[in-house]
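Exercise: predict the fold of this chain.
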Amino acid sequence: MSLLPLFDLSLQGRADVRGLEFLQPDGTIATLTFGELEARSNRLAHLLRARGLGTGDRLAFFLQNRPEVIDLWLAAAKLGLTLVPVNVLYRARELAHIVADSAPTAVVTTPDLAVHLPAGTPVWDVTALAAAAAAHEATRIAVPADADTPMALIYTSGTTGAAKGAVLTQGNFATNALTLVTAWRITAADRFLCSLPLFHVHGLANGLHCWLLSGCVLRRGSGDVHPTAGTPRGAGPGVRRTAAAGGVRLGAPARGGPRTVPGTVRLRHPRALRDDRDADERGQPVRG
């Protein structure tokens, strides 16, 4: 089982339906239909192929959440690329290891993050890449893929040593998404507020994939990862976000009542986890 036939439930089957809402720099809300997302990713796939990328090639992205991450993910599924998501909190030590170990063709990023990459790393500016892609045709590219086709090289957190790259296949992602959409009863009637970082496997596997399979509306909060975590930007009144005793509800109520995740979960910011790891390596007590 590959991913594209599942994505096509929305990209082609719901082409005229609003699929994505996102906050623009001027504070206004922009929207894209599933058909527009299909066209954007097709154009990007044409550009990436013109730059020499093909099945099995690796392309890294070092980005905060933005629509272009979705374009990259969809284009990679169409071309059979292996994407390497990189945590935006990583700096010299982690970046040097991941870039050397994964050996991507290039790293797609922004100027403010590019300065942290090792010297000599091939860098593709995401804004320039999107502008160049817009000049290409929007016809579908789709190379053959199956359950064993690699989709992503995901690096572990590195808390017990150097981060290790784990290859996740299209079959891994497809099975996970089908299971969650079925178990959580996600439908096109739901709304999904995504403030999960898309460099993380949870944001990709449990976020983007469940959205594309179900055809619900995704509202992208900023998703920016920064030292002080707070209320996600972009969470307007049109998105239900309810915290209650014993659980958290995201999206519209499901048939038979609200969906909740039971229990108490302690959330810690990724920078705090990294600081704890560094303290542990120095033999200092961690905050826990």
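Check your answer against the key: The mean pLDDT is 84.
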